[in-house]
Each structure stands twice: as structure tokens, then as C-alpha cells.
Fold this protein.
Amino acid sequence: MSKKKNKTPASGQNDKKRKAGNQGKFSAKRVEFLQEHLPRYLEADVAHTTKAFFAGIITTYWEKFNWRFKALEEIPDGWTPPVNDDDLSVEEEKLKTDSMQIVPGVSLYSLDC
């Protein structure tokens, strides 16, 4: 007979409880934005026009949720983005590219509705 391992973390470890299952990919405001567009997305999915659907909302998405913030981060109230992105550092350019490549690949079916 095998002994059961103690699954209780040592003191100080994992003090913050996480919800079970999928932790989600977006902040609450981003999920709310995407859920507002869910009915139109489902119509586009049936009509096989999701590419056009995303082309129609992606500009609005990036205006509301700047690439400088990770998908799980809330954008602070009152924060305004710089006027342009012409003088980005190499690190900022990589962050922008990475952020913008992640978002179009996310399916609205994975939202917790």
C-alpha cells in the first residue's frame, strides 16, 4: 500500500488561491468587450465570415486595450497612450508584435459565457 503525499503547500507557498480550471486569457474589461460582440461573431461563424468580423473590430479593440498592457492586465483609469508608436525601442517593438499576434488567434468560443 502506498502512502498519500501531503498536498498542503509549505507555509508561505501559494497563499493566494486560484480558481479551478481555465484561468482565462483576458482581463474582465476585455472579456466584456468580446462578449458584447459575441452574437455578431456567432453569425459570422455560421456565414464563414469570421475574418471580416475580426477585421471590423480589431481596430476598436486596440484603441480600447493598448498593446503595452498584457491581456490579463487592466488598463489604469485615466491612462492615455502616447500619440504615436514611431520611436519604439527594440523591446517595445517586440512586445507590440507579440501582443498583436496573440489576440487574433483567440476564439470567442473559449470565453466563459
Q: What stands out?
A: Residues 28-75+87-110 form one domain.
